[in-house]
């Protein structure tokens, strides 16, 4: 690669300072996200592409070992995703993936889904993945406006529910206590049984929250009515953006708008932290009414915002086993209705 060198980044300050120069980067390429996966017992690789000693690109890769196969997952990266530089960078990452006996590399760049980004993916030799790596279609609110302006951009019924929650004296409490994840997880399990989805494991949620809250980059928001829990939101604050990463509700939320109160308080907290965007995270395409997150997406869209579609997850096959893995994942995707 001429005078380009790829090596692992071990300096947290160097990594985070690079991220700050890239406003599109979110928590998926943060130092904390790597620590979270390391705490789960996974092997992580913080790749850096250098030229004359200066860092030009980064990619946090997590080695995922599943029954169907082993692969590198690069969510939200590499950063940036452009030109021959990226092609060379991925070629070097590929060498390490082969040494780690991976069957493929799966990445979902933090790059909008355009003809240019699709052309680069094709040039690199990537194929559209049969599975999501992280949210491809997101809903993002501009929160640099005043509170009244933000409310004015919402659906009328959403504004009504936010105000109704206030009239009903719904109380939203913020928490940095990792032990609260236990209740969050239990409510998620109940919701999963009702709605037919696979819940995240307790350790996955616990370690993720613990990794970010240690740097004051995460909060739990709990909505209560007379000490009865209605809903909870797990929000991450990073690089000028707040992300509504997970949410749960209880049966009582069906009659009292706790989830609306949770999100509105999270938006206000994001403004207090000088965030510019509030990311409601993944939404289902409007025409996919049978999508398992269709009703949740209707709730999220009530808050307004811009729908931002990123380049979907792409795979770089490394071994002959990838063909069988791909067929398996296509069938699994159909079963899960995603």
Mind explaining what this structure looks like?
This protein folds into two domains: 4-134 and 311-336, Aminopeptidase (3-Layer(aba) Sandwich); 137-309, Aminopeptidase (3-Layer(aba) Sandwich). The protein contains eleven helices and 14 strands. It has helices at residues 12-20, 31-39, 83-99, 115-124, 147-152, 156-167, 181-195, 202-213, 258-272, 294-301, 322-336; strands at 4-8, 44-51, 54-66, 69-75, 104-108, 127-128, 137-142, 171-175, 218-225, 228-238, 241-249, 277-282, 306-309, 314-317. The strands form two sheets. A seven-stranded mixed beta sheet has the order 1-2-3-4-5-14-6, sandwiched between helices. Helix 2 packs antiparallel against helix 8 and helix 6 packs across helix 9 (258-272). The model has no long low-confidence stretch (mean pLDDT 94). InterPro entries: Acyl_CoA_acyltransferase, BioF2-like_GNAT_dom, FEMABX, PG_Glycine_Bridge_Synth. This is BioF2-like acetyltransferase domain-containing protein. GO terms for molecular function: aminoacyltransferase activity. Keywords: Acyltransferase, Cell shape, Cell wall biogenesis/degradation, Peptidoglycan synthesis, Transferase.
């Amino acid at each position: 690669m001429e005078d380009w060198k790829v090596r692992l980044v071990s300096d947290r300050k160097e990594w985070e300072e690079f991220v700050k120069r890239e406003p599109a980067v979110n928590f998926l390429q943060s130092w904390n996200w790597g620590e979270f996966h390391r705490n789960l017992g996974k092997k992580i690789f913080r790749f850096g592409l250098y030229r004359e000693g200066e860092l030009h690109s980064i990619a946090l890769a997590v080695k995922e070992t599943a029954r169907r196969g082993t692969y590198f997952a690069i969510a939200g990266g590499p950063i940036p995703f452009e030109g021959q530089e990226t092609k060379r960078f991925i070629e070097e990452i590929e060498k390490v993936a082969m040494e780690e006996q991976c069957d493929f590399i799966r990445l979902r760049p933090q790059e909008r889904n355009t003809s240019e980004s699709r052309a680069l993916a094709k040039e690199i030799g990537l194929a559209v993945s049969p599975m999501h790596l992280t949210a491809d279609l997101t809903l993002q609110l501009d929160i640099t406006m005043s509170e009244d302006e933000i409310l004015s951009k919402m659906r009328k019924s959403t504004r009504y529910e936010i105000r109704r929650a206030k009239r009903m004296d719904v109380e939203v409490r913020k928490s940095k206590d990792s032990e609260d994840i236990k209740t969050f997880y239990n409510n998620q399990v109940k919701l999963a049984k009702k709605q037919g989805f696979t819940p995240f494991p307790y350790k996955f949620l616990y370690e993720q929250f613990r990794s970010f809250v240690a740097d004051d980059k995460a909060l739990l928001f709990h909505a209560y009515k007379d000490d009865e829990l209605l809903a909870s939101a797990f929000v991450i604050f990073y690089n000028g953006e707040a992300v509504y990463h997970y949410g749960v509700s209880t049966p009582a939320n069906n009659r009292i708008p706790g989830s609306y109160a949770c999100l509105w308080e999270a938006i206000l907290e994001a403004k207090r932290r000088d965030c510019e965007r509030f990311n409601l995270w993944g939404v289902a395409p409007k025409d996919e009414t049978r999508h398992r997150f269709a009703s949740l997406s209707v709730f999220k869209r009530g808050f307004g915002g811009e729908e931002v579609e990123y380049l979907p997850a792409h795979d770089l096959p490394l071994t002959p086993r990838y063909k069988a893995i791909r067929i398996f994942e296509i069938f699994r995707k159909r079963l899960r209705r995603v």
